[in-house]
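FORM 7B: Structural annotation worksheet

SECTION A. Query
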Amino acid sequence: MSLRTLLAVTLLQLCLLTWTEDCLAQVSPWQTHMQDASIAFENHDFKTAESLYRKALREAEQGFGPDDPRCVVSLNDLGRVLFEDGNYRESELILRRSLAIHEKAGAVEDKQFANTLVLLGIVLEKQAKYADAEALLKRALAIKGELFGTTSKAYALGLKDIANNYVDEGKYAIAEPLFTQAMKIGQADMKPDDPDMASILSSLASLYKAQGKPAAAEPLCKRALALFHNHPNSERYLTYQNNLADCYEKVGLYTEAESLLKQVLDGEQRLLGPQNPRLAIGITNLGLCYFHQGRYEEAESCFKRALDLNEKAFGSQNPLVANSLENLGSVLQDTNRMAEAEPFMRKALTIREQTQGVTHPALVGTLKLLARLYVKMGKFHDAEPFFKRALEIQEQNFGKDDRKVATILEELANVYDLEHRPALAEPLMLRALAIHEKIGGTKSPAVAADLDKLAKLYLQQQKPQDAPQLRKRADEIKAVLPGSTGRNIAPKISVALPSVQASPPVKDKWALVIGISNFKDPSINLQYSAKDATDFRNYLISDAHFKTDHVKLLTDSAATRDNIIGQLGDRWLGRAANPGDLVVVYFSSHGSTAKKEVGVNFLVAYDTNKNSLLGTGIPMQWLTKIIAEQVHCDRVVLILDVCHSGAVASAEKGLTRADGFDVQKMAIEKGQAVLCSSLSDQISWESKNYQNSVFTRKLIESLHRKGDKTKLGEAYAFLKDDVESEVLRDRGELQTPVLNEAGWRGEDAVLSVIPVSPRVGL
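SECTION B. Predicted structure
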């Protein structure tokens, strides 16, 4: 049951539940204000609704007395509109007044009292007062059990409310059995088409999405939507369509998600009108769908429209406005417009501080966004205080042993590491290690990552005696993790020359950048490959001195097998690049070997058939040969973010861990260097924390570490440790990037080198 349904107490219900029926005797000013306020609320004009509900409350207090049941109605509806407007603290005070009237009258065992308890519990939940919310929700559940029985629909919905509180608190293991019990009761006590079952299904789907299980959430969202198939123009139908679109997006079905989100927007515009602030939610979700694909212009347009709607409806000081500002700032940051992003992020933080308080947990996300922005800008000193504040708020709300506390400690330690202050980073990593040992045991993957980091910090501080034992412990943990079988192979294959000759200057630079999220076969879709490619293209142009017309981007349907081969050859790169140039080829997709052709590496194009890699994939040996023969330069860097086999549902259809892309078996031609995201038995993971693969995000960051002079080998040294650390902590597996420079000649490549003789692009 939604908050709005719980709070919508009609006058007739009030009269049945309270002391008198006189309130229907005549139309009073109180009734007029309440009716007008309800209309304003339904139109999402919250400021007008709040004003009218306050007038109605004054009429009730002055005309009927402060303990009259009409005051309860006004207080509840006023609490509702304050909640919807993001004013949680005042909403809490108003609803507590409503409860006090109930308790003074002794009416503490009726349905209305239970509903008010639930309302207040939800408001407390939004303020992260989870223990207080839990107590109220359990009290409401006990009342419902007494009134209706523990096998009733009302009891099932009460269980759902408590479970939702646990989900928001991150206590997924406790929440799931409550949802299961609610489902079981609902199936027995509700009709098959009861719309309230949809709220239980949708809440359970939210749990699965929070756990990173969108595939499990999808059928629940579809079932919830089906219960409203007779009400296609209702707000709840549109809400469940939106939930399903979110599932599609999280499994990489962007085409389906975009189509559904556009249907939702069309329906909302017909239902609510083109300027209704409710549209901002759907517009934001569509913008996020674009953003996750790297379609930045479309995303930015959506976020600006959502910001405009929210500001007009709620004013400039509202949490919804803060959300829009953060989304817009994220687009600006990912398009390397950091100076433009900063004021948006700072304004969002100010709004949250003023409306939600300086210790509200919602501030943690905003503070981290700002801190990460400053890290990306190289302003480490500016990042430090924001991470410290985020740490303090997280500890205050969730305790010093919370898993997210450990994450913030690690990020702050990384800032000190970047500033070459290992003595400050060390105690933070020791705290993070203690938290991970307490949560997951002394042999958890996160512990291995912490031990590796501590060993590096000790070596930086000239404490070599402390590092070997830490490394030994870390290696023992890693030895039994998925992806460990190939780690006896040296991840870096260096140039086998007795001495390195000075390389001639780079005359010009060219890049072909390829990323595929939406395949012709949607069963192998990826989440962020197209965005990864777009972000890498943007890095090359904005930071690595590549001219715009010297970088070609192919994403999704443009990245067919034929077009990739053609663009590498005489359609573009083969005609553009000359001797003395530097060429970069970046590819983000699936990589595998064909079962019938073991030892041959394949890249998966947009139109590749996963069951016929030999006939429809791009053989890596063929690709390196084409580049050697048609691209007329002797300096080529291939960057392969491949082996995303974990995204494929079936292990029988060609793209599996066992048949992973093996960079060790590649035929590297003279003048080529290959950087691959993982070893053959490993998965290249997409991040849980940002909208990129871990490899590509860390690659871009590593190429920034020493500015324009960063050599590929230096970037790889940073990249390898950073990728392995994040994947260990978040996935509990090993991912080891590999750099093969066996074909390279001369000095190590510098991607950001300034060309000495740039030409006009084709």
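SECTION C. Observations
The chain has a mean pLDDT of 87. The radius of gyration is 29 Å.

SECTION D. Sign-off
Analyst initials: ____
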